[in-house]
Amino acid sequence: MIIKEASLIPFSLKLNSTFKNSKSNFSNRNGLILKLVDESGNSAYGECSPLEGFSKESLQDAEKELHDFCKDVINKSNENFFNLSYSTSVNFCIEQAFHSLLLQHNFELKSYYQQSKKIKVNAVIGLTNIEEAINLISQKINLGYDTIKLKVGRENPYDDFLLIEKVREIFGNEIKIRLDANQKWNCDEAIEYLLNLEQFNIEYIEEPSSSFCSNLKTADSTNIQVALDESLTDFQTAQEFITDSSINFFVLKPMMFGFEKTLKLIELTESINKFVIISSSFESAIGKSGLVFLAAQTKHNYAHGLDTSEYFVNDNCEDFYKPNNSFINFDINKYPPKFIL
């Protein structure tokens, strides 16, 4: 397979409203789409959209790397498309596009992956007031969702408590509640708050504390499962935490690791009976399609964080993986989708 064309398409997507968590606010997503065309005329796409406040590289840095790649790759074969040394969002972009080309060339390769899966997704409720949060949860439940992730870490922790109490009071134990504190609390605060929340049957809480050691101590001090997200700063660190810690849930934003290394981390967790949750960092429909592929490779039935379609005023192309009744249907024979930009 020889690459004959490589080009970049910038995009800027506006969110319907500003999304708030305990660390940052953002109202739009900017990024780049890489388009590769091989000698047979097959087209494939990858997305690069580093998330400010999380990714180490800026979009400007990533754009320079991708421009260099586009110049270097023309008329090259596929030997060096994996194990790349670019920044992680660029690696994800190139690997997603190249992987999509490979699947179009080598139909036998598809048999290596999960053929089909109904991927369960959770709804996400940002740091809003109790009345609005309850209204949003009710809408999601009416659409078939039974796993709700609540952003917590309000200035007054009692407001978090009141919201969770109200959710259980209104919706009962039929729904699963996840929490995400985005490292808002120190260790002592996290333990104190979570001991008060144990009564509400929380599935897990993401990153309650400000360091890995604090999160580990928190996990050992409460009956609520702790999940890691921001603590997973690079591939090697993630490997070590998965292998050596008592943590069971690992929330991966593939844009932070690259496409291939996310696959490797999924394989590692599966081998030791732990769980990767694939989480969107508000990618466009193109980046999201890669996340759906990755989520389909997990063997568990926990919900993934892929319910982002409705957040955008307009996407850059058709979203082939919108949830239906809280599930995304994945079929390897329909991957990659036929995007039109």
From TrEMBL:
Residues 130-225 form the Mandelate racemase/muconate lactonizing enzyme C-terminal domain. The keyword Iron-sulfur does not apply. One of its GO terms (biological process) is amino acid catabolic process. Pfam families: MenC_N (PF21508), MR_MLE_C (PF13378). InterPro entries: Enolase-like_C_sf, Enolase-like_N, Enolase_C-like, Mandel_Rmase/mucon_lact_enz_CS, Mandelate_racemase_C, OSBS_N. GO terms for molecular function: metal ion binding; O-succinylbenzoate synthase activity. SUPFAM superfamilies: Enolase C-terminal domain-like (SSF51604), Enolase N-terminal domain-like (SSF54826). Its EC number is 4.2.1.113. This is o-succinylbenzoate synthase. It comes from Stygiobacter electus.
